[in-house]
Amino acid sequence: MMRELAHFLLQSPEVNFARLLCFACAAFVFVHPLRGELIAEGELPASTKDALGGTSGSFGSGIAWDAKAGLLFCVSDRGPDDGHIAYRPRLHVLSLERKGSVLLPKILKTVILRDREGREMTGLIPDDTTATTPRMVDGRTCIDPEAIAIAPDGSLFISDEYAPAIYRFDQDGRMLNRLDFPRAFEPLTARGTRDFGPDAKLIGGRAPNQGPEGMCLLHDGKTLAAIFQSGLVQDGSRTSASVRFVLMDATSGELQGDYAYPLGDPEGHISPKKEKISVHELVSLDASHFLVLERDGKGRDGSLDPKPAKYKAVYLADISRANQETMVKKTLLFNLPDVTGISARALSAKWEGLATMGLSPDRRSADILIVSDNDFLTQKFLENGTTISFERVKEEVGTQFFLLRVPLELR
After folding, report:
1. What average pLDDT does this structure show over 285-293?
2. Which residue among 41, 248, 307, 388 is buried most deeply as judged by most CB within 10 Å?
3. How far apart are CA 222 and CA 213, in angstroms?
């Protein structure tokens, strides 16, 4: 049963965004978690080959369920070894057959992401220090895809952590246009220049490799929502107790809302700073209610003795009363390691894919698909005809799929 605890509100009209961060653990209603019911599960081995013949992986970096077609759209991230391998980020289309309690994911289509001119994009760390957008000196566009949403016309929005930006592609992977975040979100140095690298010395904008990790399209088909992996540099970066949750016009990119979303367990059992909590997916239920996936870094990571998964939590977020002085309200729906039938020791470290497979007619429950990002943890990685060995991978980690039925309270 659900039990409401203390409800803390910020009363002072003089509270600004910076002060608001200090109240991250007290500015929303917390309701004890409901244990989701495990309906079905499945896995793709780390050695799975995609439709182009290369090593597949990172399916859970971002997912979107196409209910009409009955297909799952997935994006990989920038590839293995954190942007040091010339991986070509790509889009996968999967079928997801269910036989009883077993999910059977199958790759139907794989396409490489390309720029407007048709050139293949790359997951490499940008090396053109003079560019105002992430790119290599040879002109290739650099992209680190982290979320995907399907537009009413079938085109695909994909968020990029490097820029940060949201790209729009056709289903063959060709870029149609790009939406940039306002300057306050751009990775800026003291000289006023942009630095997209992992070791950048920034005074503002998204922290290195901590961009718009979650993104979705609202049901009006006209509004995008995005949530950042950690705080902006000016908000405290990875030490911040909250992250930015924004709304933007899906055509113009104009910002329509900018809110603070609090991290971690409000009872204090999970400290965002101590546990290195970050946000990894965002799903729209309606104009004001969203599912948000938060996690720590514990779980199977390719080593022989990883720490058991502890915090892979899905929250119901409500932005209906959020503004510059009031944080987004959140309610814990479930923590994956606590779900009956799931072993914390068997869970992958990275959980980044989330989608709804359908709401009940009374909107009191939802079937939720959650997918891991296996981080390409395989000992032999094949990309574009070249095989690369990863000696650091002692245990190969596949991609896990869980389907859960979860009670909701949408008001």
Report:
1. 97
2. 248
3. 20
Number of CB atoms found within 10 A of residue 411's CB:
8
Q: Which two tokens stand for residue 331?
A: 């309610």
Token pair recorded at residue 377: 């943890």
Contact 105, 42 (CB under 8 A): yes
Give the residue, 19 or 218, on which the prediction is more confident.
218
CA 231 to centroid of chain Cα atoms: 14
Task: Report CA-CA distances (Å) from 238 to 37, 170, 210, 307.
Answer: 33, 34, 9, 21
Question: How far apart (Å, rounded) are the C-alpha atoms in residues 335 and 199?
Answer: 33
Q: How far apart (Å, rounded) are the C-alpha atoms in residues 186 and 183?
A: 5
**Alpha-carbon distance 362 to 18, whole Å?**
39
> Read out DSSP for 360-390?
-TTSSEEEEEEEE--TT--SEEEETTEEEE-
- Is it true that the peptide bond before 164 is cis, omega within 30 degrees of 0? yes
344-to-148, 224, 298, 299 alpha-carbon distances in Å: 27, 33, 10, 8
Higher-pLDDT residue of 106, 27: 106
Sheet strands (E) in 233-337: 242-249, 255-262, 278-284, 289-295, 312-318, 329-335
* Dihedral, CA of residue 230, residue 207, residue 225 and residue 272, to nearest 10: 0
Which helix (H) or strand (E) segment is 17 a member of? Answer: helix 17-20
Q: What tokens appear for 97 in the block? A: 């057959």
Distance CA 175, CA 26 (A): 42
pLDDT tens-digit map of 247-283: 999 999 999 999 999 999 866 667 777 778 999 999 9
Question: Hey, what domains does the chain have and what are their CATH numbers?
Answer: 17-407 (2.120.10)
Structure confidence at residue 16 (pLDDT) = 39
CA–CA dist 119, 15 (Å, integer):
48
Q: How many CB atoms lie within 10 A of CB 344?
A: 17
Tokens at residue 10, please? 């910020």
Give the DSSP per-residue string, 83-97: GTS----EEEEEEEE
Q: Is the predicted pLDDT of residue 352 greater than 90, yes or no?
A: yes
Q: Look-up: residue for tokens 């959020």?
A: 322
Contact present, 221 and 200 (Cβ < 8 Å) = no
Q: Bridge-partner residues for 145, per DSSP? A: 160
Farthest CA pair distance, the chain? 61
Tens-place pLDDT, residues 60-104: 999 999 999 999 999 999 999 999 999 999 999 999 999 999 999
